[in-house]
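Issue 218. Parser rejects a valid record. Input:
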Amino acid sequence: MGRNIEDFIPYATITDQTVMSGPQAYVNDSTLFRAHTWAQAWSLRKSLKAAAEIKDFIILGKDNRATLINANHKFDPKANADATRYSTGWAVVANDNAFTDEELEFNEADRRAKYKDLYKTYVIAMHTDTADEMERLMWDDPHELMENPGPGDVRRPYSIPAIITSDGKAPSGFTSSTVLGIDPSVQTNWQNQFETFEDFPSEVEDRLFRAKMHSTWVDSPNIRGNVLTGTPLDRRMIFADLRSIEALRRILRDSNDRLTSLGQFDGKLTYDGIPIVWAELLGDVSIAPTDQRLFGVNFDFLFPIVRQNWFMKLLDAPYGGPWKPHNMPLSNAIYEFTYYNWWPRSRRRLFVIAHSSKTW
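Output the parser choked on:
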């Protein structure tokens, strides 16, 4: 595993030059994606202290017992509703990098000359790779290891297609019929909204209208306590493939004076004010018409949960700084960890629009 001193001569040669942009300034073109769509929700993430699992309760059903009465009505009280518990575990994304003391020392050379901070280069590369992996995982096909990992299995985080499915029920990638432990075939209020089309250009406006109306709820009056029955509207986004976005732009362009809810604001396509954003992993203009999908996400009801202080955390050695193997004192390793998962507070406020033949 040892390396010759001569291997590090290029670093010394580079630092003999004056670097134009300074030691801390970088253009990072290593990312795989033009945008990390998971970052759209990251400012809304929730943090939990160290806990074995993530859990909450939701009211999904009740008996219809409200009735008109006469005087002296005889009541027959019965339990009317239960709070349903649902939970999942932590998924952990880990990353690492390695370097030697000689690399840093040769890189720095004469500090009177400008040099690039090599240690920062390694950290940037590691952060970028983690961000790319989290983007892939956000749009991953549903997998059994999201819902039911076995002993010794590596848990996968839930993805948008695992939570927002083509028929509102559990995805076909799960062996069970549950999503976070709740069966949407039994608890129908745990189903997401869905619409299908045969011909995207002629039908998509109607499908967007229906999906938006079906996923929007108005708060009930006078419900006691910290209870949410409505749908806040300011944190909604529609993620789509590029073929669909191109088609929607053509519809907007050709609408002339025809009433349409499609619009454009600040250079972004919108539907009723909701931004429509390209998620690269959903496809570009070359995908088949039957693969076009639009996912309607409300980040008040679907957001990342992060273990407190463990988001892209650089883990220092007990003595501080990088880790050094006991038998390789000139070598260094750095490690990064993220504990997280995606959490749906509600599924019926989320929607998808897909071709009738597209199932998952």
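Fixed in the parser; the record now loads. The longest helix spans residues 118-138.
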